[in-house]
Amino acid sequence: MANQNHDAYKVVIIGNGGVGKTTFIKRLMGINDNDIQTGRYIVTSAYARYDLHLNTNHGVVRFDVWDTSGQEPPGVLREEYYQNSDAGIIMFALSANPSFVNVKMWDDDLCSVVPNIPRVLIGNCADEHQKVKERSISGITRRRSFEEYIKMTATTDRTDKLAEPFLRFAEKLMELSPNTLHLV
């Protein structure tokens, strides 16, 4: 399942607009952005690509990360973003039930283009009042066969926490034992 180029693993980050996808990847990459500091929401136009390098105990692992806006309508445009993905992150806001309700739609959309890829579900905004029930989250994680569910706050969590989904993907794609890959 490794990328054809063996250069970088393509990971697409999807979910409703405003759930923290861009903040998540920018913070992980160490991009100091005034909008992150002020909490101001800026819509990602269509998509943005990031070249993420993680220094791990197995060397540098590179990801081609596609951050989608969450505003694009279903269909050809979104399908183009998903093509050739090695893994996917579906993010929702723990403080916004509608973003959780749409997890199934985002997962169906992604899996219709790239079936059977590893996917991680991220519940963001753990520092805010949680409106989504843990029971609902564990149910969808199990039913939809997500590799893992990670609860985080993209604006304040440490880099090692933000890197977790990428480390899990790398373990799977590099055929390593679970929880053996870590940042150095």
UniProtKB/TrEMBL annotation:
Protein's cellular compartments: Nucleus
The keyword Protein transport is annotated on this UniProt entry: yes
Claim: Kinase is one of the keywords in the record: no
SMART domains documented for this protein: RAB, RAN, RAS, RHO
Gene Ontology CC terms: nucleus
Main location: nucleus
GO biological process, one term: protein transport
SUPFAM superfamilies tied to this protein: P-loop containing nucleoside triphosphate hydrolases
InterPro entries: P-loop_NTPase (IPR027417), Ran_GTPase (IPR002041), Small_GTP-bd (IPR005225), Small_GTPase (IPR001806)
Keywords: GTP-binding, Nucleotide-binding, Nucleus, Protein transport, Transport
Superkingdom, natural source: Eukaryota
A GO term for molecular function: GTP binding
Family listed: Belongs to the small GTPase superfamily. Ran family.
Protein known as: Uncharacterized protein
Lineage per the UniProt record: Eukaryota, Sar, Stramenopiles, Ochrophyta, Bacillariophyta
